[in-house]
Amino acid sequence: MKIFAWTDLISDLLKIKEDSYQEFSQKLSPDNKVLGVRIPKVRKLALSYLKNCSQDELLLTPMSKEPYLEEKFCKAIFIARSKIDEKQRLIYIKEFLKSIDGWAICDGFCSELKSAKENQELYFSFVRKCFKTKSAPFTLRFACVMSLMYFCNQKYEDEIISFLDRINTKEYYVHMGVAWLIATLYTKNGPHILDKINEITLDDLTFNKAIQKITESNYISKEKKAEIRKLKRK
After folding, report:
1. Which of 91, 101, 170, 178 is deepest in the core (most CB within 10 A)?
2. Is the same domain home to 139 and 200?
3. What is the extent of the structural domain holding 216?
4. What is the pLDDT of residue 4?
5. Is 68 exposed, middle or buried (0-12, 13-18, 19+ CB in 10 A)?
6. What Gene3D superfamilies has UniProt attached to this entry (predicted)?
């Protein structure tokens, strides 16, 4: 079995980076160090390491002090795809949240955590705690994105909405995450969602962004979109 080192992985990433994509990706994630490797290629490389290296080494070896976005995404895949007990996975998830400082790695990590589908009670218990954080905007966004990907059903609907009551949406990426979550709740569960949202304290800017995202959906008729637009707050 191959001995794992982050320097080797970074060297492999450098071999498949694209300068033009680096410029594009850097604009989307200005606060992150970006090599310029397309996500499908990052995923393929990370999965090859999972196949050929010790799982414990992949999970326990610290990343470099200032990791690249692609490096973080590899770590996210190691955590999400390793064959480990789900409670142990949540320990790694909690630790990895400390290194999330951008929307791309936050949302990408959530999309990889597909085991949440089969372990909803366990994962939603963790998401509850994330919603209750006060000073970590990307932990809040993580809670929003996990909810819209895995918990937008009637079972969790009321509790999710209660978490949005007075949530700090002054943080841009939280603001966008909440709007996206509300729009997903609406498209999956129905128009009554907006009535419930109006019963909590949510700022006008975030509510209006949610309305915009709802009307961008391809699942809603033009007539219904016209009605929804009238609900925008002034």
Report:
1. 178
2. yes
3. 117-234
4. 97
5. buried
6. 1.25.10.90
The reported pLDDT for the residue numbered 63 is 96
Q: Which of 68, 91, 112 is the C-terminal boundary of a domain? A: 112
pLDDT in tens, 82-139: 999 999 999 999 999 999 999 999 999 999 999 999 999 999 999 999 999 988 999 9
Judged on CB neighbours under 10 Å (0-12, 13-18, 19+), 30 is exposed
Indicate the burial class of 25 (C-beta count within 10 angstroms; 0-12, 13-18, 19 or more).
Answer: buried
Which residue numbers in the chain have pLDDT < 70?
A: none
Give the pLDDT of residue 234: 87
pTM of the model: 0.95
Residues 121 and 234 in one domain: yes
Residue 187, SS3 per DSSP: helix
For residues 65 and 191, give the distance between their C-alpha atoms in angstroms, rounded to a whole number.
47
Instruction: Provide the token pair at 57.
Output: 């080494």
User: How far apart (Å, rounded) are the C-alpha atoms in residues 26 and 120?
Assistant: 34
Residues 50 and 79 in one domain: yes
> Tell me, what amino acid is at 179?
A
